[in-house]
From TrEMBL:
MF (Gene Ontology): ATP binding; glutaminyl-tRNA synthase (glutamine-hydrolyzing) activity; transferase activity
Subunit annotation: Heterotrimer of A, B and C subunits.
GO-annotated biological processes: translation
Superkingdom of the source species: Bacteria
Known role: Allows the formation of correctly charged Gln-tRNA(Gln) through the transamidation of misacylated Glu-tRNA(Gln) in organisms which lack glutaminyl-tRNA synthetase. The reaction takes place in the presence of glutamine and ATP through an activated gamma-phospho-Glu-tRNA(Gln).
Cellular component GO terms, alphabetical: glutamyl-tRNA(Gln) amidotransferase complex
Top EC class, one word: ligase
Organism listed in the record: Conexibacter woesei (strain DSM 14684 / CCUG 47730 / CIP 108061 / JCM 11494 / NBRC 100937 / ID131577)
Catalytic activity, EC: 6.3.5.7
Reaction catalysed by this enzyme: L-glutamyl-tRNA(Gln) + L-glutamine + ATP + H2O = L-glutaminyl-tRNA(Gln) + L-glutamate + ADP + phosphate + H(+)
Protein known as: Glutamyl-tRNA(Gln) amidotransferase subunit A
UniProt domain Amidase: residue ranges: 29-438
Amino acid sequence: TELFDAYRERAAADRAAADDGLNAYTWVADAAPAETGAAHDAPLHGVPLAVKDLFCTEGVPSQSGSRILAGYRPPYTAHVVEQLERAGSTLLGKTNQDEFAMGSSNENSAFGPVRNPWDRERVPGGSSGGSAAAVAAGLAPWALGTDTGGSIRQPAALCGIVGLKPTYGSVSRYGMIAFASSLDQAGPFTRDVTDAALLYRHMVGRDERDSTSLAHPDAIELPKGVDLKGIRLGVPEELTGEGIESGVREAFNATLALAEQLGATVETTHLPHAPHALSAYYLIAPAEASSNLARFDGVRYGHRTQDPDDLLDMYVRTRAEGFGPEVKRRIMLGTYALSSGYYDAYYGRAQKVRTKISEDFRAAFGSFDFIVTPTAPTVAFRLGEKTADPLEMYLQDFCTVPMSLAGIPAISIPNGLSDGLPVGFQIAGPAFSENRLLNAAYVLE
Ligand code: GLN
């Protein structure tokens, strides 16, 4: 409980500081929980855990960064949180995020933006910006986030920490407030790669309540590699060309040189369909979101408008008041893409591109152990810098979205600074290659 109290005080102080703090937390536990549940010899006994707001936590506010879920306290806890509690962790707090995980800067939250601890005038990345900022600033030893198109890897990069997006299906989505169900994947934010392995090993597992969840074929081991002898790294030309800021490129090249010194071979390769990944993602993700978000109707959860004229008026005004502008934009995009007459032209084609991207990776992994890219094309940008142009914001996901569409694991590790701000290096591997991926990341970190 001493450890818990130390973190709890820091997290609570940040929350109390309001505009002077990072705004990383939306809720902080009042006190160390009474000694119940996990045994003293549980592997994570007493280690506090910060959790992105969109994980349902029984009796604890869970709003997914949205006004429409104001006052919602779920009657149950997400599978992965439950599993970590069983391993001995205690819930420290809920972290701020972009509304329904839509965003790359954490400026789309009903709770206001999160600040980057490296420079408080800059964004922490998104959508799991609160988790990333909390870990980077020492307000949590580690945290859970979710990644649909980059929301673990990109904020990890912008905050200078480690973020793992695991193989799709390896962690149950039960109790995660859904954004795009075929892409959403929970994963750890940690200070180093060993911690990522340690947290992830207690997250994996088949859960009957998520029909897409799968048992991981391997027990997750703590990394212990010393070199990269015999490891073949592929650098996809399509993801490492134009659009990558010069400082980010320099850090990337320096890490490639280090990898070679450590015994890896580095070669250029191709993912021919990767340039279409963003377009496919921004049809598929909004399409799924428009369907997932239909449940927020003012009847079942959270916010309901005052004095509606009739049922339709209740739906319309509840949703108009409850959703923020980015969420509304995605619902409109997704509804359009799924509407009859346009379905084949948009959603159908996007699914075909998705298949092609998976095939590109499969082909590349025939010749390479891992595909490596910068995690994000830029370092942390200024608050407000990209809010006026959604397309500009979507470019942040350029290097992370292809792996999401393919369902494969990818990790971001810090690889130096550019203008005093952290840069991230992304390593992606075949489905269920987490042990090898964590080992390579451990050697390079
Ligand atoms: N930035 C991307 C989006 O807005 C990814 C978000 C995510 O991974 N949750 O959709």
